[in-house]
Amino acid sequence: MIFENKPEIGWGIFTIPDLARILNLKYHKVQKVLNEYWDTRFAAQLGSKYSWTDGKSRAVTFHTLVEFYIYYRFKEAGANTKDILKAHQELSERFDTPFPFASSQIINKVGTFGKKIVISLDPEHIMDLNNTRQLKLHFIKSFITKLDFDGNDLASRFWPLGKEKSVVVDPHHQFGQPTIAGSNILTATVFNMYLAKEPVPFIASTFGLNDKSVADAIDFCKNAA
Q: Under a CB-based contact definition with an 8 Å cutoff, are residues 97 and 155 in contact?
C-alpha cells in the first residue's frame, strides 16, 4: 500500500479551509471532525499518517479529501468511530488500498437499513455501522455522481458543481485547487477579476474561455465564499 502523507505532484494539497470550501461544508464542523479523523485514530490503527504538517498548518491529499467526506457523513449520522475504523480496516485489507472510502467498489454500495448504515459488498459480506440518526444517503449518492474514477476504481477527479459544469478538482492540475476543466486556470483567478468588476465576456476572452466556463467559476466561488 502507498500512503500519501507528503506533498507530491499528482496527489493534491488541501488544507482545512480547502476541504470546507471544496466540499461546501462548515469550517468549524470540518475542523471538529478532523480532530478525531486525522493522525490520531486512523494513524494509530494503520501505522501511517493521512496528512502532513509544517508545525502550523496541516494538509491532505485528494484521496483523503474524498474519504473525509464519506467519514463526515457517517459521523453526522451518529456512527461510532470504532465501527467506522473497523470497517475501514477490513475494507482496506480486502481491497488492498489505504483509501477504501475513495473506491467506487465500496462507496457505491453504501446504503441504509433502518438506522443502520450498511455496506453490501455481496450477499455474504454485509457490513453494518450502528448510528443514532438516519444517514442522509442522498448526500453520498450525489457526491458519487460528481466523482471520476481511475482504472483502479479510486476517485481521480471531483466536479463540485456536477459534471455538466466546468469546475473540476483534479490533483494533476494546480495541486488539486479548483480549475476550469481543460485548463490550468484557477477559479479563484477568474473570480478575482469578476470582483474587480471586469465583465464576463472580457474575462472569457482574456483566458480563451467561453462565457459559460467563466460563469461556472464565479458560481462556484460565490457558493464557497
A: no
